[in-house]
Amino acid sequence: MRTGRAGSSPGGEFHRVDGAKRGPRPAHDVPVWIGAYQPRMLRLVGEKADGWLPSLGYLKAGDLASSNTRIDDAAEAAGRSPREVRRLLNVGPLRSEPLQHAEMLATLALEHGFSTFVTAGDDPRALEAFAAEVAPRVRELVAQERA
């Protein structure tokens, strides 16, 4: 790859980008969220990352508590507050009734500190159900418990 005032020219087997230039600087900080599962990466999350973003489908029983502990311990060892590390969770598409799904997510928020849930899928009805039924119910359940 060549770099210089005219930009970069990475030459690849399938794609070339001649004269590519960096775009403007972002208007805000861009957070770094890491989807980690192993001890060394969880330590890195605690030391450096803005957030932890695992996927629910890859976690085993007990992983949430032990991973949160590793992240918190690493943050404190690095002189950071564990609260600086946002907890996000990829939850995938709805696999149960919306209200059951909301109860599960509220439990994850209350017991493990997740503040953001990322859903996936290409079914517009499922996404609408998540936005209209699941998300508001999660907020309501968490607010009730914290009141």
Helicity level, as a percent range?
Answer: 40-55%
Largest sheet: 4 strands, parallel
Question: What structural class do the secondary elements suggest?
Answer: alpha/beta
**What ranges have pLDDT less than 50 throughout 5 or more consecutive residues?**
none
**Individual helix count:** 4
N/C terminus separation: 57 Å
Shape: globular
Which strand-content bin applies to the residues? 5-15%
Tell me the number of strands.
6
Structurally, the number of domains stands at 1
Average of the residue pLDDT scores: 89
Topology of this protein?
Layout: E1 2-4, E2 7-9, E3 33-34, H1 39-48, E4 51-52, H2 63-77, E5 86-90, H3 98-112, E6 116-118, H4 124-146
Parallel strand pairs: 3-4, 4-5, 5-6
Antiparallel strand pairs: 1-2
Helix pairs in contact: 1-2, 3-4
Quick recap:
The chain is α/β, with parallel strands linked by helices and 147 residues long. The protein has helices spanning 39-48, 63-77, 98-112, 124-146, and strands spanning 2-4, 7-9, 33-34, 51-52, 86-90, 116-118. The model has no long low-confidence stretch (mean pLDDT 89).
3D architecture notes:
The protein is α/β, with parallel strands linked by helices and 147 residues long. The chain has one domain. The protein is 43% helix and 12% strand. The strands form two sheets. It has a four-stranded parallel β-sheet with strand order 3-4-5-6.
